[in-house]
Amino acid sequence: MVKLADITEIIPIPEDVTVTINGSEVTVKGNGGEIKRNFNHNKITISNDEENVTVKVAFPNKKDKAMVGTIRSHISNMIYGVDHGFTYKMKIVYAHFPMTVKVQGKIVTIDNFLGERSPRKAKIIGDDVKVSVKGEDVTITGINKEHVGQTMANIEQATKIKGRDPRIFQDGIYLVDKRQEELE
């Protein structure tokens, strides 16, 4: 099989966003805030000019090709996050025992889940993630897609039902909508 000479991925930078590259650390600043991330990979080089970020690898093997695509996606998500932000919407569902959900600092507390006396807790990941509860709707917003997604998963996993038939006991907090929305 013939090896490719190089693979280059180009990511456009919007006008409101600034990308700074220091070695393998990429910093993206925009209206929503700032995200830093270290992409330490031996063969891959990341460079930028005013308009584009370039991710390049010379004589790649299969893993290097995959890593170039992964780094491109991460940088694209960072740029989109600081420019627009990410919003996940969840719905509180219960049949008999009305659960109450509260945000206390960096913890989401779920009381009275299936009538349990002890509250269930979910951790909010990252400093930029905001969780709000209005009625039966839970909204998670932030600029880092990974932190927003992991916080959503933590809340969903906190209400996982064990030892009961999941076809009957469908109480929980479930993802309803994933959106990339404009920052206010």
Briefly, what is this?
By secondary structure, the protein is an alpha+beta fold. It is built from 2 helices and 13 strands. The model has no long low-confidence stretch (mean pLDDT 91).
Shape: elongated
Order of helices and strands: EEEEEEHEEEEEEHE
Q: Report the top-level CATH class of the largest domain.
A: Alpha Beta
Which whole number gives the mean pLDDT?
91
Rg to the nearest angstrom? 21 Å
In order across it, which strands form the biggest sheet?
A: 11-12-7-13
Tell me the number of strands.
Answer: 13
- Under CATH, the topology of the largest domain can be stated as Outer Surface Protein A, domain 3
Low-confidence stretches: none
Separation of the first and last Cα atoms: 51 Å
Short key terms for the protein model shown above:
184 residues, alpha+beta, Outer Surface Protein A, domain 3, 2 domains, three-stranded antiparallel beta sheet, 2 helices, 20% helix, elongated, Large ribosomal subunit protein uL6, rRNA-binding, RNA-binding, ribonucleoprotein
Descriptive account of the structure:
- With 184 residues, the protein is an alpha+beta fold.
- The chain folds into two domains: 6-83, Outer Surface Protein A, domain 3 (Alpha-Beta Complex), CATH 3.90.930; 86-179, Ribosomal protein L6 (Outer Surface Protein A, domain 3, Alpha-Beta Complex), CATH 3.90.930.12.
- It is 20% helix and 41% strand.
- It contains two helices and 13 strands.
- The chain has helices spanning 62-83, 145-158; strands spanning 6-12, 18-22, 25-29, 34-38, 44-48, 52-58, 86-93, 100-104, 107-111, 120-123, 130-134, 137-142, 172-179.
